[in-house]
Amino acid sequence: MKIEFKKIPITGIDFDTKIGDLRFYGVAEKISEKLVKCKGVIEGNFSHSCDRCGEDFLQNLKEEIEIFVCQGIYKEDNELLNLIESFDDFVNFDTILKSELESYRCDYLYCKNCK
Ligand SMILES: [Zn+2]
After folding, report:
1. Tell me, what DSSP letter sits at residue 32?
2. How far apart are CA 26 and CA 3, in angstroms?
């Protein structure tokens, strides 16, 4: 799902999206003219090949995340961790979820036999 920047209020708006068995839900709020803060939870599981034996297994996940989405290039002075720049006037929650998932997949994960 995606929401237009201009439709996100400072009081916040709920979002809820899903990719496979992973759900990402929470509240998006406008914190400055071109900046939106998304605070929520990623919950569910995803399949991964064990980094030791190569066996596919399901990894459970429940993690609180806070991520900022900037409309266009981020130009403010204070540096933000977890920043995504958006170039189409939308906050795309699927894109956020996908990029978080990619970062989980970059970690070394082991199946229950190899832990
Ligand atoms: Zn393994």
Report:
1. E
2. 13
Q: Encode pLDDT of 37-79 as tens digits.
A: 999 999 999 999 999 999 999 999 999 999 999 999 998 888 8
Is 111 part of any domain? no
List the domain range (segments joined by +) for residue 90: 2-106
| C-alpha torsion sign, points 83, 86, 92, 94 | negative
Looking at the chain, the whole-number percentage of residues with pLDDT higher than 70 is: 100
Q: Which residues line ion ligand 1, judged by CB < 5 Å?
A: 50, 52-53, 55, 111, 114
Distance 56 CA to ligand 1 centre (A): 8
Whether the model pTM is above 0.85: yes
Q: Is residue 93 part of a domain?
A: yes
Structural domains of the chain, count: 1
Q: Has residue 82 been placed in a domain? A: yes
